[in-house]
Amino acid sequence: MDTYRKLVKKYNFLKALPFILPFTIVYLIFLIFPIFRGLWISLHRWTMVRKMDFVGLDNYLYMIKDPAFWESLGNTLLFVVLSTPAIVITGLVFALICNQKIKGQLFLKISFFLPYVLSVAVVSSIMVYLFQPHSGLLNSVLQNFGVDQTIYWLGQDALAWFVIVFATLWWTVGFNMILYLAALQDIPESFYEAAKVDGATKFQELWHITLPLLKPITWVITLLQIIFSFKIFAQVWLITGGGPGTATRPIVQYIYETSFKENSLGYGASMAFTFFIVLVAVSVFQIYFRRRKEG
Amino acid sequence: MKKLTLFMVVSLVLLLSFNVMAETVTVEYWNLFGGGDAEFMDEIVKEFNETHDNIEVDSTRLEWAEYYTKLKTATASGNGPDIAISHVTRLPEMINEGLAVPVDSAAKEVGINWSEFNQNILQGTEKDGKHYAVPLDTHPLVLYYNKDMLSEAGLLDEKGEPKTNDYMSFLKTLKEESSAEYSMTNWTKLTAEGHYRFWWSLYNQLGGKPFLTDGEITLEKDKAVKAINYMKEIYDKGYAPLHSEYMENVNLFRNEKAATLLTGVWITGTLESTEGLNFGVIPMPTMLDQRASWADSHTLMLPYSPNQDLETQKAALTFAKWITDNGALWAKAGHIPSKNTVKEDEQFKNMPYRMDYVKAADYVTFDKAGSHTWGIRSKMTTALSKVWKDEITPEEAVDMAIKDIDRLISR
Q1: Which chain A residues touch B256 with a CB distance below 8 Å?
Q2: pTM of this prediction?
Q3: CB contact under 8 A, A132 and B385
Q4: Which domains does chain B have, with CATH numbers?
Q5: Domains of chain A
């Protein structure tokens, strides 16, 4: 009987194989292999054209002593800390608003989500047009209201960060809102009815029913938001170029510049691989932390 | 018998047609032009193909930002084009990596006469006495000026040209005596190259040595600092605005908020199409000791290929010769043609503005530093931007730039 069961298992596996194989092959070639190849490249000096020179861990040692690396990593962390609470909470607020049975509910839902549909190039162009110091829309409006000084939105560190966080929020908050809306729909009406019978105010309903039940989805959204924020590149590149100077340059941009503008692909690969480890650690830590809380 | 005749007829026809096809050489041509430049280049290629029966140029337009990465990887893997555009400042990199081949022998066969070219531009394409590319154009910084505003301030001489002898007081008079909000505008977004180009021009007007010579840093600190201080005075006194984005600063000139615009020749077309703008143009004025200005230059190079074919090389260089002979066509895009002979061409002489700045080509200084040119540009740009933000002094900025460049070249 045992051999029969083994054969059935094998047969079932063989039946499933043609369905799994296409994806697995693509996954191995385009996702798994590059990770190891990247690690291999990071142990060499390479300018893309000549043969690679094996240098062992030299790139990593150089990286630890490179102030630009730490600055860009710090910039990325700053962005994660600034943007994650902002975009998660705003997503929640928008979802709560859109969940009310009010007039114009559909219009609100559409307008909050619509920017998500735009490409990053379009969003960045809009933001540059808004925040340009001398002919931007915002400064023109402010000047009409009597504000004399020209505000250099993209020329001062703090303001530049504000613009980037604002641009990212406007662009991507719709995604979080949709996830929250779905979770809100899952909360049974009966909970609220029972609370009303007990004389609860709207605020108490929110605090004691809604928010606790949204905890699981909030964990997911926060984890996703943190990972997205860590990987930021395109909108910074297009709006401030990492500036003023290098004040808003995130790690991905520094890797790109090192590899393709300064032709040091080995060094770029070492930073990229380190960044990969950091992201894995962040995810693992979050999942572990969540398990402990719920356990 | 019938079958045999049929077979012979068919193979004869095939052989003949094959022979005819072998006469036309296809030249794969890659370029990085966009916008207005791209349209003019497409027109040029079309006209060449129509007038040359036995050569077919097949042009591929690549995105500016990824051009060099794609060109290098394709060439390195043996799949490069037969002829490609390269900025003269990136040519040393291509030569060092073995991606560009000398063109002397094929050029001789095609009849390219090196003495017809502007020698200043041509120098940039030579290494160890060999020619590695055919220069196509140069695009330096020039000064566009608003004729109405300058005459308001009494700054036009009898010939109607700007009086820029003492440039700082020129700017001062403009600000005080004309209706302009700014005397001058240039591209000053802190992360972008614009203000670096202005600095490089000033540094060379002081006669400064190149960034690198034979792998050693030869940047002259005192001249670098002097150039920065000159710029700082202009920004501190409000003669020109800081932080302006690229198109913003062009539009400040077009909207007549700025009396002059310091930017590259490529913007001539845009300014020509602005209604009601009465403007003129001169090469970048001598603001410090001698004439000099930043420029880059497009050249046509022959990428390395494992199976070098002389016929294809000759066809490619025939194309290069034709474009440079007919430089007036490319000048429509605003660029200065590389051949001195084009200046005699009626078509070119009748184009407005181009004759006003064509002599700028004699004074351009390319910031070539081997493979590190574009990396050095960004290091210097970062250092400069810290000065405009009042975070460090000009001396500290130059020290910082030298340190960063040192780390870059020793990596």
Answers
A1: none
A2: 0.79
A3: no
A4: 25-136+297-325 (3.40.190.10), 141-295+368-409 (3.40.190.10)
A5: 43-294 (1.10.3720.10)
